């Protein structure tokens, strides 16, 4: 028994019937078209992953800049508070 409960002889018989029905030229064209479609799909997937990674990196950079700006604001606020306390004494 082969994959899915089909014997190798049954698979060979199906292959011969398909060859007789469509011929080798049509099957070659179908194979070429299918290969091109798979290549295009893989290319689109890798491009999509690359764009997603770039978007994630840019968001992380923006988050890093925001936290740096927030830290700077907090330190300025602390200095202002300390200056006001020292002016009031």
TrEMBL record:
GO molecular function: protein transmembrane transporter activity
Any one GO biological process: protein transport by the Tat complex
Name listed for the protein in its UniProt record: Sec-independent protein translocase protein TatA
Gene source species: Spiribacter salinus
Family, similarity comment: Belongs to the TatA/E family.
Keywords: Cell membrane, Membrane, Protein transport, Translocation, Transmembrane, Transmembrane helix, Transport
PANTHER family listed in its UniProt record: SEC-INDEPENDENT PROTEIN TRANSLOCASE PROTEIN TATA
Chain's role: Part of the twin-arginine translocation (Tat) system that transports large folded proteins containing a characteristic twin-arginine motif in their signal peptide across membranes. TatA could form the protein-conducting channel of the Tat system.
Chain segments carrying region Disordered: 38-89
GO cellular component: TAT protein transport complex
Localization per record: Cell membrane
Main location: membrane
Transmembrane region(s): 6-24
Domain of life where this protein originates: Bacteria
Subunit structure: The Tat system comprises two distinct complexes: a TatABC complex, containing multiple copies of TatA, TatB and TatC subunits, and a separate TatA complex, containing only TatA subunits. Substrates initially bind to the TatABC complex, which probably triggers association of the separate TatA complex to form the active translocon.
Biased composition annotated in UniProt, kind: Basic and acidic residues: 47-59, 71-89
